[in-house]
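U., I forgot to send this yesterday:
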Amino acid sequence: MTKTLLPLVFVIAGCFFFSGCLEDECLATRRYTIYTPVYAKMEESRSVVIQAESPRELRNPGSVFAHGDYLFISERHEGIHIVNNVDPANPVPVAFIPVPGSTNFAVRNNLLYTDDYIDLVAIDITRPESAHLVSRTENVFPAYTYREALGHVVRYEPSTETMELACHEVNFDNDVFWVESKGGFAVEESLAEAEQNTSEQVVGIAGSLARFTLVNGYLYALAEDEIYVFDLSNGASAALLTKVTAGRNVETIFSKDQSHLYLGAAEGMYIASLEDPIQPHLIALVPHRAACDPVYVEGNYAYISVRTGTFCGGNSPDNFVQIVDISNMAQPVGLRSIPMDNPHGLSIVNDQLFICEGTHGLKVFDATDRVEIYDKLLMSMKGFTAYDVLAVPQKDLLVLIAEDGIYQLNIANFGQPEILSILQRKFQ
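Result:
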């Protein structure tokens, strides 16, 4: 893949000091994070041989999926790690599948479906150590920009520099504004730092931060503000059937039953009916202030984590988990809000509610009563930055995605999770 960096940037500003006034002029010296686009030529990505090879170091983990005795861990924009997890106390990396554009995936009938930039690929994982490509559906996902000589914009890489702004400029006091000379946006530093720390920390089909989910032989994938619906009835050959509007600023997609999708968006949780699985349609919105919000559903209740300090959430002081009665899908009712520090992904298993609290670690609540949870904190685990959790109830196992790696916890003892192992991330 050819990577070309051009000066199209997103700019993140944090003011350090003011220089004072000179003839009614003042300057602010500010630090900026410059986001420069990376281009990829699809003919080069498609030439990569997608099959299992020797294990690699875990450097930039994203999606995680538990399948049988294995964990599959996305190495964003590089491929997928395969880990033998027969003994969660001693996970063993056994292979790596190179997929240059992989960020999200889901598994059905020993087939792993993942994005490869603008393509969708299917990989046979019947024997994970011998995983191999079986099909590719080309040009189904959108790209930011395309240039003939460079290819598609596939992501943005950050860098930092210091600049000066004059106080007479119209955007001097604005938190977010367009910077014409840079061709990008300026965003107040505290918002952007939180966004960098949590972006793309997504966890497969069973997690609350997923962007792929599977229901009744269909793959539902989020791309921008649309749901892409793929037919998987022909085994490995996925066919794009339709694209449906998913609401505004939709970030996560979750399925717990066979009849609805739950979409976490900046303005609230959308509920989409699958009465026609090819044409999911929105039937309800549970609104909240602008925020990034993972969603988890258990029985007749939805749990929505809403946090501050994010690019989409602004600097509102509110941090909470909202409990919503969805027994009537068309008319959901908010019931309770549990104050939190900075909630991210969450899950309920074995009558325990696990909530990732970012730099505040992991909190465990007694959820025997699915609503009256407010004052039933069982345990608070600290010492790591937690993003999301994946429950494997048949093994009394919780897989936790943290900044420093993949944690596995034994949750057999009520309210007393025990760390079994850590797959350490190798920081570059």
